[in-house]
Amino acid sequence: MTDRVAVSVVMPCLNEAATLARSIVRAKEGLARLGREGEIVVADNGSTDGSVAIAREAGARVVHVSPRGYGNAYRGGIGAARGEIVVIGDSDDTYDFTRLEELVARVDAGADLVLGSRLLGDIAPGAMPWLHRYVGNPLLSATLNFFYRTRVVDTHSGFRAFRREAYERLALRTGGMEFASEMLIAAARGGWRIEEIPISYLPREGESKLRTFRDGWRHLRLLLLYSPTHLFTAPGLVLSILGLVLLVALAGGPLSIGRLHLDYHVMFLGAALAILGTELSLLGLFARSWKTPPRWFTLERGLVAGAIVFVAGFVLNLLILWQWIASGFGQLMEVRRAILGLTLMVVGAQLAFGAFFLDLVRSRSDHSAAPPLVTEDAPS
Ligand SMILES: Nc1nc2c(ncn2[C@@H]2O[C@H](COP(=O)(O)OP(=O)(O)OP(=O)(O)O)[C@@H](O)[C@H]2O)c(=O)[nH]1
Ligand SMILES: [Mg+2]
Q1: Pocket test for ligand 1, best of 70, 131, 177, 202 (most atoms within 8 A of CB)
Q2: Where is average pLDDT lowest: 136-150, 164-178, 235-249, 279-293?
Q3: CA 9 to CA 13: how far, in whole Å?
Q4: How confident is the model at residue 2 (pLDDT cuts 50, 70, 90)?
Q5: Residue 359 CB–ligand 1 contact under 6 Å
Q6: Mutation test of ligand 1: which of 209, 212, 215, 219 has the most ligand atoms closer than 8 Å to its C-beta?
């Protein structure tokens, strides 16, 4: 189908017989108020309650998407939409599609993604469970804003508008409820102008498809996976620096700060943190290198850095060995230097082997695959 229209309203639907017709009627009214040619696309994937027949009856275009899932339904439905501008929203009659012109007006005015914000607007009693309203949504929204430098109040709002062509460039790929977060992350990364307008949110009829913990976790998992900086690199650097500071501070002897006495146990902690921190930092580097290998990295630099740290630890242990030999292989109590020395050796080895692995990751990424440039000789 190639004939374009101005606006497509796309609704995912899974067993919404009680509310689907009302949602479509509202969308029709919204399109009529807008006064532009439009269509309503219902993306179904397995409704068994007669929703499909209701959608057809109400004058919507039905597309059947597989596999199941909120994200899949949207990716299929938006992919099949013919509108230049796409408005999306649930088919449970909780968003007021009659006011879609307010979202479209912002797109017309230059916004790339417009969200109807329930948290900035009003939520009817019973429309959103307490746990979602005051815990889940604010926490996940704050995390998304912090990780991806956005300033969106209601990141889980399903009432949105954008241009279809731009949307395609986002190349979204998730299949479940986390699709809502993925769209925002991709939009933020693409430099999109994201705007929110206050909307009203109404209670749903019919069974909710949102499962608090399963879907909350799917969102959180996505936020973490898409940001190796926050998942690996930042905690990794903090832990390794903290670990090294503790180790070095205590290598010469115990420390007393007021009534606080720090000794071997804190050194053990320091060793564990330094090793864990190095591992996390390296994982962060590997994860990032798949897309954008760091320019400063070469295998040789990584190996030299690893070797320096390893040798420092090795020398410390050699000194202990020397002392032991000199004392005629007697009793040995050089625990402090041994902890520091062994930790440095482990961290050094991690860096060196990590450098090999990083080189492997980089050599498999697209960036190093450019063919050499060849120019024909042109005799004068
Ligand atoms: N096609 C399809 N639609 C789905 C699927 N899961 C959810 N939906 C639809 O997506 C919309 C959002 O799902 P809801 O259950 O309303 O989730 P929610 O709005 O976060 O939660 P509530 O506040 O309880 O309504 C609804 O229109 C559902 O019918 C799915 O697997 N396939
Ligand atoms: Mg809903």
Answers
A1: 70
A2: 279-293
A3: 13
A4: low
A5: no
A6: 209
Question: Where in the chain are the domains?
Answer: 5-225, 228-365
User: Which residues are CB-neighbours of 255 under 8 A, at least 6 positions away?
Assistant: 249, 261, 262, 263
The answer to whether the CB of 92 is under 6 A from ligand 1 is yes
**What whole-number distance in Å separates Cα of residue 356 and Cα of residue 79?**
42
Top mutation candidate among 41, 63, 88, 90 for ligand 1, by most atoms within 8 Å of CB? 90
pLDDT (tens digit, 9 = 90+) per residue, 77-123? 999 999 999 999 999 999 999 999 999 999 999 999 999 999 999 99
Q: What integer pLDDT is reported at residue 344 of this predicted model?
A: 97
CA of 164 relative to ligand 1 center, distance in Å: 21
Percent of the chain predicted with pLDDT > 90: 91
1 pLDDT above the threshold of 60: no
What pTM was estimated for this model as a whole?
0.91
pLDDT of residue 346: 98
Domain 5-225, CATH among 3.30.300.30, 2.60.120.620, 2.30.40.10, 3.90.550.10: 3.90.550.10
User: Please, is 288 exposed, middle or buried when counting C-beta atoms within 10 Å of its C-beta (0-12, 13-18, 19+)?
Assistant: middle
Helix (H) or strand (E) holding 195: strand 194-201
H helical segments located in the chain: 20-34, 51-57, 70-80, 100-108, 130-131, 137-148, 164-170, 179-189, 212-225, 228, 234-251, 264-289, 299-326, 335-364
Contacts of 376 (CB under 8 A, 6+ apart): none
